[in-house]
Amino acid sequence: MTTWQISTTAGDPARVATVLPGSGYTAQGPLLWYAAKTLRAAGWTVRTFAWDELSPDWGEARRTYGEAIQDASVPDGGRHLVVAKSLGSFALPVAVDLGLPGVWLTPVLTGHASEPVRAAIAAGRAPALLAGGTADPLWDGGVVTAPDTEVLEVDGVDHSLEVGDWRRSHEILARVTGAVERFAAQL
Q1: How many CA atoms does the CB half-sphere of 93 hold within 13 Å?
Q2: What pTM, to 2 d.p., does this model score?
Q3: How far apart are alpha carbons 69 and 82 in whole angstroms?
C-alpha cells in the first residue's frame, strides 16, 4: 500500500482548498504550485496532498483522493475547493457527489479509466474549471457540456500545459493561474 500525507497552510477556515497532484507531477510542479500560491494569497486554507511515491496505482489513487477530500474539515456554510492535476481528476466523481467545486488541470478524459471522470463532468452538479491542451492525448475538450463548467483549452500544449518555448509556457501558466484566481473568487 502506498502511503501519503497532507500538509496544511492555515488561512480562512471557511475557505479550504485541497490540492491533489498527478502521477509524477507533485504539488511542487508549476501548475499546482501557483494555483496553491494564488489561493493562499487570497486567504484560503490550503491542504496539499503528497504521495510518498510518485506513481501510485490508479485504483488506489481514486479511492485515496476520494477519502482525502471527504476528510476535509470545513464549517457549515464554508467552501471546499478541489484543485487537481491529471491523476488527481480521479477525485472528480466524489467531488461532484459532494457538490464540491473543482479546478481540474489536465484531467484524464480519454481511455477506459476516464469513464467515471467523464460521467462526473457530464453530471455538472458543481462548478468546475477544466484546463487542458490540444496536444495532450489525455485531453478531450469536447466532453464538457455542463452549464457550470468553464473550459480553458490551449492550442498545441502538452499534458503539463507547456510548449517548447519557455516564454510561451510562462504565458500559459499565467493564463491558467489567472483563471484559477477568477474561478476561486466567484465561489
Answers
A1: 15
A2: 0.94
A3: 8
Q: Residue 76 above 90 pLDDT?
A: no
- Per the prediction, the chain carries an average pLDDT of 92
Provide the CA 20 distance to its chain's centre, in angstroms. Answer: 6
* Residue ranges making up the domain that contains 54: 4-185
Residue 18: its pLDDT value, please? 97
What is the distance between the alpha carbons of residues 126 and 21, in angstroms, rounded to a whole number?
20
Q: Which residue has the higher pLDDT, 79 or 125?
A: 79
Contact of 120 with 100, CB cutoff 8 Å: no
Burial class (CB in 10 A: 0-12, 13-18, 19+), 76: exposed
> Three cell numbers at 182?
477568477
Handedness of CA 60, 162, 172, 143 (dihedral sign): negative
**Cα–Cα distance for residue pair 146/119, rounded to 1 Å:** 11
- Distance separating alpha carbons of residues 60 and 2, to the nearest angstrom: 8
pLDDT category, 23, cuts 50, 70, 90? confident
- Report DSSP state, residue 50: E
CATH code of residue 73: 3.40.50.1820
What does the angle CA 27 – CA 122 – CA 161 come to, to the nearest 5 degrees?
Answer: 35
Residue 1 pLDDT: 61
What's the one-letter identity of residue 156?
G
DSSP, collapsed to helix, strand or coil, labels residue 164 as coil
